[in-house]
Structures are given as structure tokens and as C-alpha cells.
Amino acid sequence: MALAQFAKTEGEQYQLKVSPPRQALQNEPVKIGIEYTVPANTAYVDSGKAIVTYHNVDTGENFVKTVEIPLAKGKHKAEAIWGAEETLPHGMYVITVVLSDSEGKQLARYAADPESVRSMMVHGGGLTRMLNAEQVTKDVDELTTWREELEKLEATASAAGADTTRQKILIVVLKEATFWSRESIGGKRYDILDTNHKYLKREVIKAKAELETLAKDPNAFPKEVVIPRPKERFTIRDGGFYAGDQKMFLSGPCFFNFTIKYLPVARELGFNVIQVSTGPNSIFETSEEATGIPRISDYNEKTKTGGLVEVLDQCAELGIKVDLGLTSHFMPKWVYEKWPDAKNQFVLYNMMPYDIEHPEMLKLVERFYDNVMPQIAGHPALNSIWIANEPEYMNPNERNIAIFRPWLQEKYKTIENLNKAWGTELKSFDDIVASGRKGNPVPDAASTNGAKRDWWKYSTERLMRHYEWQKGLVHKYDPTIPVTAKLYNGTFNPQFKPMSRADEESTFDLFGSYMGISGGSFPFSKPYKDFLRSLNPSQPMANLEYKFGGVLTKLFFWQETMQGVTNNNWWCWHPNRTFSAVPKDAESMHQAALAKLDIQRLLPQISAFHKLPGAPMVFLYPDPVSPRYYEYFGFNDPTNRAVTELGFNCDYASEKRVAEGRLDQYEVLVMPAANFITDATYEKVKTFIESGKTAIVLGSIPDQNEYSQPRDASFFKPRGDVKELIGGEFKAVRFSAGKGTIYHLPEVPRSPDGRGHLTKDSAKLIRDVLELALAEKLPQQPVTIRNAENRAFIENRTVSYTDKASEKTYLTYVVNDWLDNEQVVEPKFSFKVKSARDLITHEVLDPKRIAIPPGDVRLIEFTVEP
């Protein structure tokens, strides 16, 4: 559903939403839904018009419908309909809708940009693909012809001694696209077929030319890397996985029982890791009597397929490792029928549906591990075991409260001390009782910010205790297997921070050797990975549930890897396209396989970008407390982005790391609305600045402690020789504090929706302040990247690198995350550049002017003129 561009009338807004079909078929009706709201204070008008324009981007034609609409106050719906007899030409269509009154005065307007078709295909809204079903079905037949042509050319090139690894991948993709086309035709999903045909046609033309060249000259293109597939487990060191002395990039899909048969296809595409999972429901299906046969979570009783040991054995044969989920959130239904009080009172995502304090549940979980682990311990196909999916837990029942009260008594000693911290007037600790409200995540008496913080802290500690116990149940049988949890990167989302989520730092510190995360490449995903990598960059990071697809596949794979991910379990091998873009989407499958190949080949160079600290500044990360979520993460996103666009890594220092002396490594502390810190952290920060260091404060100053109680933060208020950096409505100032300096931007532009969202102008303002504040602090970069057309910023990093020939080079990673326009950069160098080439594509580049295609990345090697 696309939001309107509003036209204001008498100080109010007409709200307009438009819902065109994503797919439309010729000779069938096409309906465009219109929803609009007439403001309450609008003078009554009997009726008006909605003029709907369908613009064919491919032909330039416009098709217009005028719909009579009522304009009474309130919400209304209407439809613009092209009948089956009004055959619209094949192509992509964007929509413009104009609401007007009876006199022709415009009230509201929605317009989709015809230059942003690729963006709309990815993000949805405002776009329709008009298709001829008969023609699309005929196009599918070409896939077999193309595959057969490529197979003959590949055989000739291979016989000549050429490396045809990349072209073989396309042949596999063509075979799979042909197979999955039958289901798409049956479901009338012609848009998928049309997308696949257009993409594969381009790729087949390129592959034919490459194979013809290789048949004549087997050494015309560089050889591809051979991906090791050792029988033994990978070892972990230096932030990655190793097969012997070779660092490995792991990548592959999450599998379900009914797709396990495609494991050989995953092997053909070059993938070397998969994920499957299971839980107590797989062996305690009907009672406490275990079946004794562990199976993956969607085991098929009819076909008797999906046995866990059999899957591991097959993966060992194929040279594929397994990240195995042994998670107790898969509980059988009979458990809660037998023990109703074992159900968690508050469940947000159903990831922890049971009471972790319930004695019968603990016995069942222990029996689950004691049943499964002896059968798989030491299996060479196992790469890791994750025991929790997107951990979050709060359960304010009486059993929990009975543990919470002593926890509070030990901390506060007296009820008077607790009341002071919480801002309550409780008479005794016994006043804290189980919640009487269904779905309430906190005890009724713990409704203040201070109380919520303690309840969250207690809940997290108990959850970590539970996970430590489960980790022990795994290591009891397999002491060396890495154990982790799938931390949810959505917890860094400025718009969403569930109170019941686990503490990332505590979870990370518990599992130690291996970091597991879950999530796609959202804007908040990079700061999240930066934070985790800052905790300990020597430990590998795995995205165990990675979302990607379509035209963004290559971009997303590279972004994940450059942000520190060394194991990528993408979600997932499943035929339902709404559940996964793979395997039906040919571009997703093809580009994922090629990215895997390129990343493995270039892993030594990529690893050079992961070293921390990579900048003279560090972000302060306050302990998670309830009142700071929205503001902190709202400021954190654009600030992190700005540092990235300046060409630097983003490091974070949690309050625990600050206490351990982490600030000593840095010259600049960035504080994006970093309020609600403890008194101890406040003093550490104050000492840091007074010693001659710099703080960049964005938004609120730290004028409250972790319990939302006010503190004297006059140290962070302008005084003395104050210099205004940026004036106007939103001011930024600089002033001295001890021997140090504070830069402060107190407020930024916010959206008019009343929710306080930061706008795009906020991001630019934050970036400008950072540049001014860091002008004398940032080291000179060997390569400076700016967009050549409008001097806009673009994500980039440059590191020094010595290649195998011992020649010093500089590597620059540049991202164009705009889908509809290429970006052109004119690098500035601190050295005399000899040559430039893209290490991913092997393309020789002009170092003075470099184009980055839409939605793409470059890893550029600049050699130095002696």
C-alpha cells in the first residue's frame, strides 16, 4: 500500500492510499483500489473525482480512468477498473491518482516515480507488471534450449582445459528455473516467470560468449578458487573459520524436511553450509516417552524422511557443514495440556513459550538433549549448534515473582531503597505480585522506568542462566562444538525495541567463541553488527537467518560480508515465494552462488577491512534501559551511516567495556542521545573529556541515570568560549570542558506525524556536524570518495593491503545502494596511483572516474606508482 503525497486544504490533509495489483494479466480485469479520508473540518462537498492514470513505462503510453467519488467527511473506498476487453499493452505500469472536488480543485495526489521501477519492484507499492500469460508460458520453453546450448559449449571448453565453474552454476540455475516454472504456471505467478526469463536471457548471452572464448583460450579468464570440503570440522581463529590454513566463507540455505532432496543442488551451486533445526516436539510427540529417533522439525511421518542423523550423514558425504538448531521452543502441544502453568504468561514471538523455571519443563528439556546429543556428538558435518532463536523472555507469573523478590531484597536491602530507585510507594517486597493482566510483560507493581529496568535485568539474568545450563547439556557430550543463539538484529530498529528481548552483550559473553544473529540487511542491521563485532572482533559472526533476494542479492551478500559476517545461512530453500525468494527466483539463486564464489576468493582482502579499531572515534552504547530505546536508536542510525560515508569503521563501547577501560583507545567519543547511563559511566566519560579528548553529543545530554532519575549534567551544557558551528533553527555549538572539547547538536528536524521520527534532513545535519567536529581529528585517508555529480556521500572504506607479490596496494570498498541510478565517484589520492581494477569483476577501471552500477558494490585495488 503506497502512501500519498498530500495536498493541504485549510490546514488539514486528505489522506490517500493507492493499491495497484503487483501482477495483471491481459484480457482480464485490472482493479486499482483507492482509499481516502476527508478531513473533519472540511466544508461539506457532495462529490468529486478521482483521476487515475496508468503510465506504461516501457511504451510511454497513458491510460486514464475518471471515477466519481463521494466527499463526505470520513473514510471512503473506490476502484478504478479496466475491463477484460480493454487490453492494456505488456509492460511495467506506474500510477498517478489525483483527488479533486466538483470544481476541479486538487485535494490530494499520489504519484509513483517512473524512474524508480527497480526500487518499486523490491519495496512494493505503485507498480504493476502487465503480462500476457500465453507468451510468458512460451518463454519458459526457451530455458531448456538455452541450457542445452550452454551444456554443449561448456563440454567443449572443459575438454580444452578451461575452468568453467561459473558457467556451470548458470546451467544448474537454468535447470532449477525450468523445474520450478511448472509450479509458478500452476499458481499463475507469471511475474516470477517473466522476471526469470529476462534475467536469464541476459546471463545466457554473457555465458555463451565466455564459453566460446574459453574454448579458444582456456586461460582467457582467471581460475576460480577451489572451495575446501574437509571431512573434519572447521577450526575457529582470527575472527573466522579455517580449513587447515585456508580461511573459509560459509554460505548456504536453511532447509526443511521436504526440501532436503535438494541438498545435491546446493552442493552443485558451491554452497558449503546449511541449517536445519529440531526440538522436543520431534521426540516427545505424544508423551514423555521419547521415540529415540531425533528428526528435523518438520519430519514427514508418511515418508519417514527427515531423520536428523541421516541428514548429517548426507551432508558429510556432500562436504556440507550444518548449523543445527537444538532449540527447546519447539514444544509439543500435550505439554501445556498436562502442565498448564508451564506456559509462558507473556510471549511476543513464541520463541520462549514455556516457563524456564518450571521443574517439569526443565526435566523435559534435559531429557531432550540427553536423547539427541549422544547420537550426533562429534559428527564431522556439525559446524555449530544454536539453542535459541531470537531470544526474548519475560514471564511475570507467581513462580518468577517468588524468585524476583529475593533478587530485589539482595540488591536494595530495604523497601525504602527500592522505592527511591523505582519512584514507588510500596509497603513491602510482598507488594510485588504476579501480573493480573493477560499479555502484560511486567509485574503490575513494576510499571515505572526504574522498576522495568530491574525486571528486565532480572529476566535477562535468568534467561542467561537457562541458556548456560542448555549450553552445558550440549558440551556434556560434545565439548568442542561452538554453541550460540540467533540474536535478533531488529532490537536495533529505532521503531521497534521489545522490552522482553535478551541483552545482546550478556548473550554474546555467555556463548563466547561464536556470534549468531538473525535478520536481513535493514538500515539498523549494520550498526547492530558493528556493535557485536566491537565486543570482540576476533570471534566469527554468523547470520543464521539471513533475508535476501532478487536484484539486491549481490549487494546484500557483500554488505553482510564486509560488515563482518563469515557464515551466512540464508532464509531459505522453500517453494513459497512469500516465505523465501529462493529457489524460484533465478537471479537470487544465481547471484548468491556467484557471490559465495567471489567472497571465498577474496576473503584475505575482505578480512583486512574487519580489523578494529578502525577509526579514532567510538560510539557510547548505554546499557539497555526502557526509556532510551527510541531516541538512542533514532540518532544512532544516521550517525553510524555518516561515519560509514566518511570512510571509517564504527566501533562501540558498552558501559561494561567502558568500565574495563575501552575509552583509552580513542580520541573521540560519539554520544547519539546516549542518556540514562549509570553514574560510574558518567564519571568515566567526564574524565575522558577532561583529559583532553573530544565528545560529540547528538540530541539529549546524559542528564538522567539508568533509573530515569535526574542528575547534574551541567558539564555538558555550553559555557565559556562557545562557538556556534551551525546556526538557524537547529543550532550546533562547540565549547571547552576541562582540557577537552564538546560538540553539541541538541535538536534535529523531525517528521510532522507527531511520533518524533528523525527526517532525511536530520541525517544530513548530523553528518555536517560530524564533519566539522572531526575535521582535525580524522587521519588523512589514502583514498577519499565522494559522488562526482552532487558531492553527496557514499558508503566506502579504504585499507592498506600487501598482496602475495609483496606489492603495497590500497583496497577501497564502495557501495551504491541506490537501485535506479549508477553512482560516479572521482577519488582523491594521497599517493600517486598506478592502476585500478575491480577485484570482484576483474574489470580494469579509470582511477579518475569510477562508475558503480545501481544496487552494486565494487572492491577496487589501487596500485601505487613507485
Q: Could you characterize what this model shows?
A:
The chain is built from 20 helices and 42 strands. The chain is of the alpha/beta class. It has an 8-stranded parallel sheet. Strands 2, 6, 8, 9, 11, 12 and 13 form a 7-stranded mixed sheet that branches. Helix 14 runs parallel beside helix 15 (586-601). The chain is globular, with a radius of gyration of 29 Å. A hairpin with a 2-residue loop joins strand 32 and strand 33. Mean pLDDT is 90; it is low at 1-12.
Number of helices: 20
Q: What's the pLDDT, averaged over the residues?
A: 90
Question: Largest sheet, order of strands side by side?
Answer: 17-26-25-24-23-22-21-18
- The span between the termini is 57 Å
Query: What percent strand?
Result: 25-35%
Number of strands: 42
Give the oligomer, counting copies of the same chain as homo and different chains as hetero.
single chain
Biggest pleated sheet: 8 strands, parallel
Helix content: 25-40%
C-alpha-based Rg, rounded: 29 Å
Spans of at least 5 consecutive residues whose pLDDT stays below 50 are 1-12
Which overall shape is indicated by the principal axes computed on the Cα atoms? globular
What structural category characterises the helix and strand content? alpha/beta
List keywords for this structure.
single chain; about 850 residues; alpha/beta; eight-stranded parallel beta sheet; seven-stranded mixed beta sheet; disordered N terminus
